[in-house]
Amino acid sequence: MTGQRQAGFTLIEVVIAIMIMAIISLISWRAIDSVALTSRRLDQHTEEALALQRAFDQFERDIGARSPDLAESAASAAPEAPAASDAQQAEPQPVLPQLLPEAIRVSGMKTPAPRVDIIRGAPGRPDARQRVVWERRGANLVRAAGAPTAMTPLPAPAADAATVVLDQLLDFSVRAWAPGRGWVALPGQGEQPALALELVISRGVLGQTPLRYRRVLLLH
């Protein structure tokens, strides 16, 4: 009898099949890893965008809630100056008003620690006010709020009250739009009050191109 040849794969065919499956598995793993990496980057960019949005929104809320009667209360609380004799009277010096409302103070814009002080109404307490400070501390943008009170002077924020709003901060600057002059550096004076406030935030890593974000807030 002539024996029939048993059907099946040869050793070479099995090895080739294993190699093909290994290559397919490697390609699939690389594709999955690429998708996972892209997803992580998108999540990171989304979180950074949300943090930036929250920072701009909170700053805008603080500016919008500023105390409008600060200048009036300060003027009423100031003692009346005694009348001077005609001989003692001197030629009055012209004093230009501040560009910004009295409730907003900007300082250190040309230093590594720029700062914005805002006196605003306390949330949920119509009779109270609080002092809010925005400033740069190293590579962080922080916000600190003092205790709300109806008394004066308003207390400064506690040392441990600061909250990091943004990290990887490269620059934090504020300018004012002065009528007839355009954007001017702060602090500053002018014949007319500023109409808008510009907040610019630059973020990134040193040595790389910074990302610059800008928002304009109307004051009047």
Automatic annotation (TrEMBL):
It comes from Alcaligenes xylosoxydans xylosoxydans. It is found in: Cell inner membrane. It is a single-pass membrane protein. GO terms for cellular component: plasma membrane. InterPro entries: N_methyl_site (IPR012902), Pilin-like (IPR045584), T2SS_protein_J (IPR051621). The chain crosses the membrane at residues 7-29. Keywords: Cell inner membrane, Cell membrane, Membrane, Methylation, Transmembrane, Transmembrane helix. GO terms for biological process: protein secretion by the type II secretion system. Pfam families: N_methyl. This is Type II secretory pathway, component PulJ. Residues 71-92 have a biased composition (Low complexity). Residues 67-92 are annotated as: Disordered. It comes from the Bacteria.
